[in-house]
Each structure stands twice: as structure tokens, then as C-alpha cells.
Amino acid sequence: MGSSVRDGHTPKVVLVTGASRFFGGNAVAHLASDPAVERIIAVDARMPSRELLRRMGRAEFIRADIRNPLIRKVIDANEVDTVVHPAVLSRPPASGGRAAMKDFNVLGTMQLFAACQKAPSVRRVVVRSSSAVYGCSAKDPAKFTEEMSARTPPRGGFARDMVAVEGFVRGLARRRPDISAAILRLPPIVGPRLAGRGMQYFRSPVTPTILGRDPRLQLLHEEDAIAALAHAASNAPGGTFNVAGDGALTLSQAIRRAGRIALPVPYAAFRTVGRSLMGQVMREFTVEQIDYFHFGCGLDTTRMRTELGFQPRWTTVQAFDDFVGGAALRPVIDPRWIDAAETRLLGLVGAGAGASNE
Question: What is the pLDDT of residues 46-82, one digit of tens each?
Fold first, then answer.
């Protein structure tokens, strides 16, 4: 996708999907605070919470399902010029399971983009994707650039859905070269308000890890994820962008910062031991999460800064620490005690080495 098509586009009427969910609702609230945007149309099949509606301010909520062809009427009637699509399910819903998840992620996006393609007013589309499209394997590079593809085809349903969604975006860009179609690939997102989500792994006092592996994690703070979507709505050229906090954190460092105790186990026993220690949390783990805590995933964010013009406020370490504080994780072992013990141990080793050299 070329990055020169409609880069000068200034959004006037922005439609945001998934307005009742965390990312959609908060992206609406963020855009509503921007006086340069004349109207914000928030859509979802279900009503947002009263608190979320309050925070959306001047945005207009329309109850509509993106899987229904009537979404075209919403776009046409309001002369929408910018569509932000953060509404993707990362795990199967309680009712409907994997089939319902795929229906929403894949068929919903297909229907939405069919409406965008036919709407002459649309000039920019921003889609929330995931670093899960790169898969996770022992063959992975230290950092994936946007041109790279998965070394091993992704196994999880969410990752496969995101690969399909990205294909729809590229197809839309080919058929409507006057539209700036931007894909934001986000890593695992953490923060105090998302403390009940994927990083629940760190809630267990004893945290199982895979023997012989210490994957590097790269994360994004929840507020940076929302800010990136809003920034892209106003500024994104066409193309694909890795969006992540600077730096990385090994799993062992993360466990220590959370004040947990690591329990290395063979990969074959990881789920079994995890279920006995963590119960429901491990039972709800997706394939993507298992692979992530096995291999990790690093992202090259050069294009994010140079072409998208976005810089996250939180580094990976700062985002993780804010999550730990917001999740109110009571440390089993105070990380400061570990640091002090390591310092003392290094001092003793240094003194011993000095004595032996005399």
C-alpha cells in the first residue's frame, strides 16, 4: 500500500466501530476531545455503559451491527470520511464460541469494508490488528519489521482472523487507491484498566514458565493504544505499522517485577501445571498467549515514528509496571528485597575475587 495517496486528508466525520468495548469506546472519547473533528459517529450492536457514554461526550451513538449491510446507510447518510475499526474479538465469546468470533472478526470486517468501498465520502480507514500475525516460534528474528511474515503459520483463531482482516484492508486499498488504508499491529496491551485481561498470568503467586525459555516481551500501554488509534484517524498514511512501547522485558524480569516466583516446567507440563496453580486463568488461555509466553515477539517500530509520526508515552517496562500497580498485585517476594540480595551477593563475589587476586 502506498503511503502517498491521501496523506493530506483531514477528518471531519469519523465513524468508530465497537463503541461499547474498551478500545472503541475510549477511542471515541479521545476523538471527541479533538475540536478539529466535526462529528464522531460511534457504532455498536449493543449499548455502551452509562459511564462510557458519558465519557464519549459529543459523539453520536448509533446502534448498528457491522455484519449487517445497513452499515452502508450509516456511512452514506452521515457522509463519513474516516472509519476507525478497533472492534475485533481476541477470544471466543461465552455464547457462540469460535464460530461467533470468526463471524464477527472476519465477516463483520468484510461487510464494513464493502460499505467503505462503495461510499465515495470515505477517505481513510484505520484498522486495529495484532502482532499475533507474526506468529511465535524459535525461528523468529529479534524484531519483526512490517514486511516480514510469520516464520511458522499462526495456530490460533485470533491470529488467523487478523491475517484475513489485513488481507481485506489491502484489497480495499487496491480497489480504492484514493483511500488511505492503515493497519496498526499492536502487541499485548497492558494497563490498570485492563488488569483483568490477558496479563492475568502474573496474578498467580507461583508463575509457571517453560523450562529453558526466557522470551522477550514487548508491550503497549492501554492509553498509548487508544492514542495511536486516534492519532492514526487524523494522520495515518496508507500502510502497515508496528505500534509498541520502546524496549523489551524478558519474562523472568516481568515475573520478578510483579513480585512473583517463577516455576520452570517442561513445555509438555506447562498447561497442566498452570491449571493446577492458576485455575480458570490458564484454562482460558488462547493459543496465542501460550505461544507468546513460550517464544515472545519483538517489533521494529521505526516506521511508527518516521511515517506514522507516533511516539508512545510509556516504554514496555513502564507500561508493565503501571499494569502491576493497577492490578494491585501484592508481591510474594518484594522485588526490592531481590535487588538488595543480588547487590549483596555481587559485593561478596567481588570481595572474594579481590581477596583471591591479592
Answer: 999 999 999 999 999 999 999 999 999 999 999 999 9
Instruction: Pick the closest to residue 143 from 296, 315, 300 (CA basis).
Output: 300
Q: What are phi and psi of 222, to 5 degrees?
A: -55, -40
pLDDT of residue 16: 98
pLDDT surpasses 50 at 2: no
pLDDT tens sequence across 132-141: 999 998 899 9
Task: Residue 84: name the closest of 26, 16, 32, 36 by CA.
Answer: 16
Closest CA to 26 of 223, 221, 267, 236: 223
Query: pLDDT tens digit string along 214-261?
Result: 999 999 999 999 999 999 999 999 999 999 999 999 999 999 999 888
Whole-number Å distance between alpha carbons of 114 and 169: 10
Element (H, E) at 40: strand 39-44
**SS3 call for 159:** helix
- Burial state string for 96-118 with b = 16 or more CB within 10 A and e = fewer than 16: eeeeebbebbbebbbbbbebbbe
How far apart, in Å, are the Cα atoms of 356 and each of 12, 123, 204, 345?
Answer: 73, 72, 43, 16
Q: Output the DSSP codes for 215-248.
A: -EE--EEHHHHHHHHHHHHHHPPSEEEE---SS-
Q: First CA to last CA across the chain, in angstroms?
A: 66
pLDDT over 90 percentage in the chain: 68
Q: How many CA atoms lie within 13 Å of 81's alpha carbon, on the beta-carbon side? A: 13
Are 233 and 14 in contact, with CB atoms under 8 Å apart?
yes
Q: At what angle do helices 22-32 and 222-235 cross, to 10 degrees?
A: 60
What is residue 91's predicted lDDT score, i.e. its pLDDT?
A: 86
